[in-house]
Queue: 2 jobs
Job 1
Amino acid sequence: MNALAANNLETQVRYYADSVDYYEFGQVAKEVIRKDLQHDITTWPKRLYTVPEPPKFSPDGNGFIAEFPMRYSLTNPKGTIGGILQMTVRFELQGGVWQVVGIQRKVIQAARGVTSDGIEVRKAVPAH
């Protein structure tokens, strides 16, 4: 979680495999992830992530899946948004190193408001 909040792109990218099933983008190369993470760093320079309960682990082929809720707070000079995501992360051992080969999220709860740059988000509304 500390690496996600760091504004060091390389610190974040190093955990991903060369090809990843990445959110709504589907199967992408690491360069696509790099660009997406750079966008997050630029848009939300202050980010806080916490995992309020231990992840659930299950075997998955040559690796494992970790599932967990993750709280987030994203802040820029124009405002703060936050909420809770249900994360599903697939790991495989590649070159002797565990790497993320798949990552998906489902919004459980999100903040509602409009930041000064016009971004509208939901507020404390559980997902159905």
Job 2
Amino acid sequence: MSKATGYTGTAKSLHWLILALLIVQFVVAWTMLDIKRDTKPDTLINLHLSAGILILFFVVVRLAWRATHGEPAPLDGVPPWQVQSARLVPLHRGYDSFIGPGQQLLWGKRGPFWNGLSQL
């Protein structure tokens, strides 16, 4: 079985769809009021939560796609250290996509395990 020479159209579409949803998420988050425990959900809060659920869904779909289709072969001449470091990026994305938001949901921004890496 030969390695693909590039990412599939589906993988690229999922990538850009997730990016568009993240932009919506950040714009809505910046325009929202402070959220406290007794804050009643309004349009912006509901939009923020809906975008987050959609992001989570499409990230899971993207991970499933990647698991079943693999990654393309690196380009000729790319140093091995760059190939290895490129494989570490999904680990940070995993934190940003699952662990960080999960901590925020459970404990809020100042929870016991919040380290602020996602805010860099």
